[in-house]
Amino acid sequence: MASSVVDQALEKRRFWERPAAVDLNARQRKVLQRLVEDGDGGFLGDLTSEKYQKMTGAPKSTATRDLSDMVSRGLLWTDGVGKAVRYHANVPGWSHGADRVA
């Protein structure tokens, strides 16, 4: 049990040390912190563009741009298509209960 807690803490730390995580805007950082802190599969209902908008107050176009940026940097991965697309923190070993396509 203690080793899994330590492993999770190290995974989270490694995630934030990645160069892609360095120059995020405040909205992106806020949402990623929430996803990473909630852990593998811990963010209820997964992250959607609509949830990102509600969490950050960003308009749809900004939310889409922010999320696409994080996907292209490898910080998030997606599953689903169109309105059903879900975003997940790209932490090695985390599956979020989804079949990983990325």
TrEMBL record:
InterPro entries recorded: WH-like_DNA-bd_sf, WH_DNA-bd_sf
Superkingdom classification of source: Bacteria
Organism: Roseateles agri
Protein name as annotated: Uncharacterized protein
Lineage, top ranks: Bacteria, Pseudomonadati, Pseudomonadota, Betaproteobacteria, Burkholderiales
Gene3D superfamilies, sorted: Winged helix-like DNA-binding domain superfamily/Winged helix DNA-binding domain
